[in-house]
Amino acid sequence: MMLSCKEVEYSVGRFRLRPFSLELEKGEYCALLGPSGSGKTVILELIAGLRRVHKGRIMIEGKDYTREPPQKRPVGILFQDYALFPHMNVYDNIAYALKISGMTKPDIFRTIQASVHELDIVHLLDRFPDTLSGGEKQRVALTRTLMTHPSVLLLDEPLSALDAGLRDASAALLKKLSSDGLTVLHVTHDPKEVELLAHRSVTIDP
Rounded to an integer, what distance in angstroms lies between the CA atom of residue 90 and that of residue 74? Predict the structure, then answer.
């Protein structure tokens, strides 16, 4: 089992996440549905380690990561606003995670060059986030997320800010990542995205 959430619980203020369980196989693409405020993004943040689980366990490839910090989890998360660093150009945004992992500058350069061609952003490396379109920001953020070769990719409404043409292109890219063996958990409100991308869906009740 690639990802296993077992009776995960979390609460903050007046919000309480009901016990949540989910199991995903390698290469499975699962859509996470539910009304606003039901806890979909919270679940992604719990899996990524950005919030601390109060009860339950999170297992990835058979290892318990419930208490591990985010940087030690084989997880990549792509937020709805893409969370690019505005003061860094595209190259430095992508290189950030590799730098803090201790990779040397020559190795960082080679790793980035191998990825930017695949996602068609080589021409953007010197640009800054405020000069990019929505689709360009998404590809940059996705490239940065994939730099660490995560076992599980978490997506928070990744297509919602894109126009129809870019949505189709981005959906095709995400589908390819899944077919290549990456396990994906995708938060969405759009039934069309579920039909197009997901092998199955899970609905969270408020």
Answer: 23
* Cβ atoms of 169 and 138 closer than 8 Å: no
pLDDT of residue 191: 84
Alpha carbons 95 and 143: distance in angstroms, whole number: 10
Residues 6+ apart with CB under 8 A from 152: 2, 3, 24, 47, 60, 74, 75, 76, 182, 183, 184, 185
Q: Which residue has the higher pLDDT, 180 or 160?
A: 180
For residues 130 and 124, give the distance between their C-alpha atoms in angstroms, rounded to a whole number. Answer: 12
DSSP one-letter string for 75-111: EEEE-TT----TTS-HHHHHHHHHHHTT--HHHHHHH
Which residues, listed in sequence order, are joined to residue 9 by a DSSP beta bridge? 55
Q: Is 152 exposed, middle or buried (0-12, 13-18, 19+ CB in 10 A)?
A: buried
Q: What is the pLDDT of residues 142-163, one digit of tens each?
A: 889 888 889 999 999 888 767 7
Helices first, then strands: H and E counts in the chain? 6, 9
C-alpha distances (whole Å) from 46 to each of 40, 74, 93, 98, 125 are: 10, 13, 24, 23, 32
The amino acid present at 46, given as its one-letter code, is: L
pLDDT band at 40 (very low <50, low <70, confident <90, very high): very high
Using an 8 Å Cβ cutoff, are 60 and 3 in contact? yes
